[in-house]
Every structure is written in C-alpha cells, then in structure tokens.
Specification:
This protein is an alpha/beta fold. Helix content is 64%, strand content 9%. The strands form two sheets. The protein has a six-stranded mixed β-sheet with strand order 6-7-8-3-9-10. Strands 2-1-4-5 form a four-stranded antiparallel β-sheet, with helices on one face.
C-alpha cells in the first residue's frame, strides 16, 4: 500500500525538503565536514593571493632600471611566494577531498542500506506489485546521486560562491565600484538564465529517467523469464517491448540534449560579455593612467579564475537538479508504508510445540474478492493437520497468513492463545519453516542455499540436512560437490532437486512449526515415497500444517481439511473421510484411478 501523503510523479518534493532529509545521515560526520570546509576556505584564500602576487611581479619588473638591486631581489621573493600560494591552494584542495571522501561514501552506503532493509520490511503486497528492474535502478541511481550531490556541493558550488564573493570584495576594495557592478550584473544574468532554463529542462530529464527505469524493468523481467520467452518463441516480441521503452528514453534524451545546448550557449554568452566589459573597464584605466599594467593582469587573472568555475557552476546546477530527482525517487521507496506492523510491546514466540488456532478467519487480497470465509480449525501442539482441495480454494493463503505476510480482515489466528498480531514478526517467522511448491534459489552455491535455513550452521550440519532430504548422494556426484552453482533462481537444478534443497533448508532451520505447501509436487512417485517417509519422521514433535494436492501424502495426518471456495467443506481422518463418501472420497478415487492409468501406460 502506498503512502497517501507522498508526492506522485507530478508532485515533487522541494529541494529544501530533500536536502533536509539528508541531514540525519551527515550528522555523525560534522567534524569531518567542518574540517573539509576549513581546508576549502584556506585553499580559496591561497588562490586569491595568486593574482595579487602576479600583479606585484609585473609592476616590479616594470620599475626603472636605475634601481639595480631591487629587480634582482624582488622577483625572486615574489616568485617563491607565488609558487607557495599555488602549492597551498592545491594541497588544501586535495586535503579537503581526503577528509570528505569518507563522508560521501558512508552517507551513500547508509542510505542505500536503509532503503534495502526497508524494501525487505515492506509487506508482500508491495513486492507482488513491484517491477524488480525498476526498483533496482531507482536504488542504484539514488545511492550514487547522494554521493554526487555531496561532492558537487562541497567541491564546486560552495567553493565557487566563496570565490565569487572574495573576488568581488577585492575588486571593490582595490578599485572602484564599477568593477563590482559589472561583476554583479554578469553573475545575476548568469544565475537567472541558468535557473530558468534548468527548471525547464528538469521535466525532460525526469521523463528520461522514468523511461530508463521502465526499460530496465522490462529487460530484467524478460531475462528472469528467459525460459518462458523461449517456450513461446517470443524473442522478437520481447525485443519490441524493450525497444518501445528505449524509444521513449531516446526521445526524452534528445530533448534533454537540445535544451542543454541552448543552456550552454546562453551561459557562455553571458560570461563572454561580462569578461569583455571588465577587461574594457580595466584597459581604459591603464590608458588613462589610473591603473598599472599589473592591475590589468590582476583583473584578467581574477576573471580567468571566475570563468571556469562559473561554467562548472552552471553544469553543477543542472547535475544537482538531476541528482535531486534521483534522490526523490529513492525517498519515494522509503515512503512506502508497510501493511503489517508490530504492535508496541509485541511478544516473542517461545513454545517449541505451539498450538495453532484459526478462528473464523476471513481474508481477501482484494476487498471485492474474498478468499477465506470464516475458516476455523486447530492444529494441536506437535500435531499435523492437512489441507486439501482444488486450486483456488485458498489453501496456500493459509500459509501466507500464518507467516503474517498479511493480516486477516476478520477473525483471528492464534499461537498458544496469543493473536498473531500481538507477536513480533521476526520471532514468528523464525519459529516457522516452509517447503514451498515453487522453490526459488539464490544464484550461489548449493551449500549456500541449504545453509540459508540457518546461516551459522557448519558444513557437517549442512550435509546432514542434505542427507535427510535425500539429496546428498546427488550432490556428491557433481564435479564441484556442494560448491556447485545453482544458477539464476536455481535453473541449473531440476524441479525435484530444487524441492529437496528446500526440504534440507527447512530441516536445517529446525523450526517449531513446519509448513509443507505441495512439498513433493515436483517429485516422481518413487522419489515421493522415499522423501515422504522422511517428511513423516521430521514432523514428529513439531506442529505441522500440510497443504497438499496428492492425497497419498496426507493419509497419516491427525486431521484432514477439505477446502472449496474459501471454506472448509469436510474434515476428519483419512479413514473417516473415505467412509463419509463425500468430496474427499471422490478426489481419492480419482487420484487412484489416475495412478493406475499411469502405471498401465508405463
């Protein structure tokens, strides 16, 4: 669920609010920031003295030759001072970078980690609706933009503003106010042009990054579903779909580049006119005898010092606006609200054999389409309850609610008499292990994927869990053994192998509550019989909920629930349900007939 008060794509946060949101991440580094700014001030003061020394050098060399000693001594001392000033400017500029580098890198890392954790904390509803490639691109751009924003602010914008201020003060102090007036008009015209045109361009840039995000999402989605694309020979369809996003990005980028050219032409025109006016003013003073040649050199040196940073300032303003747009999208992710929150004072799950009670549970992913309608049952402590029924009956929804991926819309789910909403999500999920119908693995080694059930397990424990899941012998025959890579989403493994890894992972977790959601659906009959006995063994002493399609896997359950259209229509033991000759018995006869047909066909 999206926060109702966060900005939309057309309603953007103010620059000030985005910058304020960064302050908490910079607070731990106030000392470094102050030291970096101190180095910056020293560097600019040293740079300010360079034209002054150069003026004295020029005027000194122009002294009458009658003073023989002075020209020999004065230039040497000034040259040394000139070299020291330039060296000091460079040294303190680099020191500023050394001091501030950690701030930029750490702030970017901290924000990206916070966003990553927030994404994992969001409810399942958000992740079912998101586009993985788009979210990944927003996080990547936003994180790098934070570092860039801090870099540009301290390295370009602040130094340029400081340098402009100092040069203006020097020109007013040493010469007449005409120099300051020309400088002020030039700067004002430059800033106004830059702001107006950049604000105009920001819309094109925002359109280009939205198109870029859409293109990335389309590409990732297509590559993740590589096999499906191949099954239906839809490579060209996917290429066309990707190209449509690229075309939108191309059009937005072309407009962005064209408007950038217009911005640059205007900026250079303003600077050129301003520099020409100042040089005309200084040259007129030299001709009139009011200024020396050294004064002309000083004014020219200051203008050259200002021209380059002014050009950068315009570029940096553009980049800062673009960075703010990227950071804004990052904050939008942080603004996403969680559907499921821990209550204040929430308790932790403690029992090793808890009792689970579903009490008149009602739920629907969409309020207009209810899934569960007044479902009630009890899983006794250490007991096993199985849920069977046709697809769409609501069986897997029970597991999602037990994990508290969603909160029930009516009724309650209790563990040892405590409402799930009064328990911490972390302790609840640590107490449960699931073997899902569709096992998705990380693109890492098979050892890593099994160890994911308990990350502190040693190799011997991992192998013990693999043996219990009847996959150790298979892994041992692979050239790289437990170091074998499983590929993207485990695509290098067969369906049966992936499901055995899921079983091993659940066993390694050693949970109080076990959920089997079609745990043997990807196994053949022989493998199913081999693993079923193991599953029956590991259920002993654990509270277990079994969601199954094959009725042969739930015959030993303490109670079997038959669901249809979100309601329990039958319940009882395997023997009692067969004797009742209802829906369960009909399903049993149908599956037995299918099994006989399969044997006959083989």
């Amino acid at each position: 669920m999206t926060s109702t008060n966060r900005p939309t794509n057309t309603e953007t946060q103010s620059t000030a609010s985005i910058l304020r949101s960064l302050l908490p991440f910079l607070k731990p580094y106030v000392g470094r920031i102050v030291l970096a700014l101190s180095c910056l001030v020293i560097a600019k003061l040293a740079g300010l003295t360079v034209p002054m020394i150069l003026k004295r050098l020029v005027d000194g060399l122009a002294l009458p030759t009658a003073a023989d000693a002075l020209p020999l001594v004065l230039p040497v001392s000034l040259l040394l001072a000139y070299g020291a000033a330039r060296l000091s400017e460079r040294v303190f500029t680099e020191l500023r970078q050394i001091v501030f580098a950690r701030v930029m890198a750490r702030a970017s890392r901290t924000v990206m980690l916070k966003v990553f954790r927030h994404l994992h904390a969001l409810s399942l509803r958000f992740h079912l609706a998101r586009r993985t490639g788009g979210v990944s691109r927003d996080v990547e751009r936003g994180g790098s933009s934070i570092s860039d924003l801090l870099d540009w602010t301290l390295y370009t914008i602040v130094p340029t503003i400081l340098e402009i201020t100092l040069v203006t003060v020097v020109l007013v102090t040493l010469y007449d106010v005409g120099f300051a007036v020309i400088t002020g008009i030039t700067l004002l015209a430059y800033v106004l042009w830059t702001i107006r045109v950049t604000e105009w361009r920001t819309g094109y840039y925002r359109a280009s990054i939205e198109a870029d995000t859409a293109a990335s999402a389309s590409a990732v989605d297509s590559l993740l579903n590589y096999e499906t694309v191949k099954y239906f020979s839809n490579e060209e369809h996917e290429a066309q779909r990707y190209d449509a996003s690229l075309r939108r990005m191309e059009d937005a980028n072309v407009l962005s580049y064209k408007t950038l050219a217009a911005l640059n032409i205007g900026q250079n025109a303003v600077i050129s006119i301003g520099v020409t006016a100042l040089m005309w003013r200084a040259a007129s003073g030299v001709v009139a005898g009011e200024l020396s040649v050294g004064d002309l050199v000083l004014v020219n040196a200051y203008l050259l010092q200002l021209a380059a940073p002014l050009n950068f300032l315009g570029m940096m303003y553009r980049e800062v606006k673009q960075a703010l747009s990227n950071i804004e999208r990052l904050w939008h992710l942080l603004d996403e609200q969680r559907d499921v929150e821990d209550r204040d004072g929430a308790l932790r799950v403690q029992a090793r054999q808890p009792e689970i009670v579903f009490d008149q549970v009602q739920f629907g992913y969409d309020p207009r389409r209810p899934i569960l309608q007044g479902v009630s049952f009890r899983v006794p402590a250490g007991g096993t309850v199985a849920v069977v029924g046709h697809s769409g009956a609501g069986k897997s929804t029970l597991a999602r609610l037990l994990y508290r991926f969603y909160d029930v819309t009516g009724g309650a789910i209790r563990i040892d008499g405590i409402d799930l909403r009064d328990l911490t999500q972390d302790s609840l999920r640590r107490a449960i292990a699931i073997v899902p119908q569709d096992t998705v693995l990380f693109n890492d080694s098979i050892r890593y994927n099994i160890r994911y059930g308990r990350t502190d397990a040693n190799d011997a424990e991992v192998e013990q869990a693999a043996r219990a899941a009847h996959i150790h012998d298979v892994i041992s025959q692979w050239p790289d053994g437990y170091a074998s890579e499983v590929g993207e989403r485990g695509l290098k493994l067969s369906g049966g192998e992936k499901q055995r890894v899921a079983i091993a992972r659940a066993l390694l977790k050693n949970p109080a509550i076990l959920i089997f959601d079609e745990a043997t659906s990807a196994l053949d009959s022989k493998s199913e019989r081999a693993i079923q006995s193991e599953l029956d063994r590991i259920q002993q002493g654990r509270t277990t909920l079994v969601i199954a399609h094959r009725l042969s896997t739930v015959m030993n359950a303490d109670e079997i629930l038959v669901m249809d259209a979100g309601q329990i229509v039958e319940r009882g033991t395997h023997t009692a349900l067969l004797a009742a000759d209802g829906r369960y018995a009909a399903m049993w006869r149908l599956q037995q007939a299918e099994a006989v047909d399969a044997v006959g066909a083989s």
